[in-house]
Amino acid sequence: MRLTVVLASFALLLPVPTLAQPSDHDDDAPRPGAQASSESNKGQPAAKPGEAHGHDEGPDTENMFGFTKGTDVLEPGHYELATEAGGALGKRIGRYRVSSFTSTFQFAPIDRMAIELGATGNRFSIRNVPGLDNRNTSGFGGLSAEIKYQLLKRGPSPFGLLVIAEPGVGFLEEGTGTRGRSYGVDTRIALDTELIPNTLFGGLNVIYEAERFRPRGVTLFNGAGEELELPLAPCGNIGGVAAAEASPDHHSHVDNGGVEDRAHTTAEAEGGNHGGAGAARAEGEDGRENCTAFARRKSAERSSKFGFSGGLAYQAFSNVFLGAEVRYLRAYEGLALQHFRGEAVFVGPTLYAKLNDNLSIAATWSFQVAGHAVGVPGRLDLDNFSRHEAVLRVKYEF
To answer: What's the chain's Rg over C-alpha atoms?
Structure first.
């Protein structure tokens, strides 16, 4: 139901941008939000309030909608440096604070394509959260490369259309801080449109994420093939020593012509041998369950997410946009959405401000308002998602 409402709302808004099309009688007038050109300035466009450096069609929507991506891309000949601080706060019980700090460099090799390279550091403060180890550590999170291609450009088209693929390699599990190696990809289809010329913008994303994570270390097994929670002494020649000790080398002490003594000694030895062998077998079986027989690398964990996000941004002041965002996400086990684990709905405010021709900031705070996890009572999914998520991004374009 939530998904249907989001899609229906966005579909109703799409025809609105046609109102911004110039009439046949205004061929010489620039479109609102577009750059004007004339022969007097020899083809150099005149900048207007709200326009982004290097963009032709009004404000830059790339980071305007919070977690939802806009469709504007960097133009060839321009570069971008950015720093992003993100955070995830709150679980059902205990203290849960996870933050990330990412630095990126973006360039445009060809028209309508941009590539962003990034490195991330993480900070974990986790205490008394069921299912998670207590942590108070920091570390290098990983590397990523975001590749964006603009299929449709907003302005000539009623809406912009962008595809995004962000592969990455990580060294800390994003939500728990467990050390290991992860390989993942975040893919999106992004759309945005200008609802009111140069004033109100809307954006929509379709999201698919997949990740394979293998924790560092090995899993230990006993001789019976059962996984051990704690390391035990390695299994040796279990039963061999016990059998040897239980079966000593008996020597016959024969008196002059003592046939009965020989028979008694032989029977005693045979009884000792049988009893020792049985004890050795019993001790060997118990020993195999109480020792470390072999070890294997820890199994890889595979997970994926699918969802939608959408946002509106209104220019409340010159070059300052205030808005709101809604996200609906579903968590699965397996790379191809095999086993459903939970869902969550996030809402929150957004802020985007262009401070000058080169510098801009974007911020959002998103909190979970609905959801559920499989097999866990409650109206929120705090097993697969956090209670709050936030991000602050500062970028410099030149």
So the answer is: 33
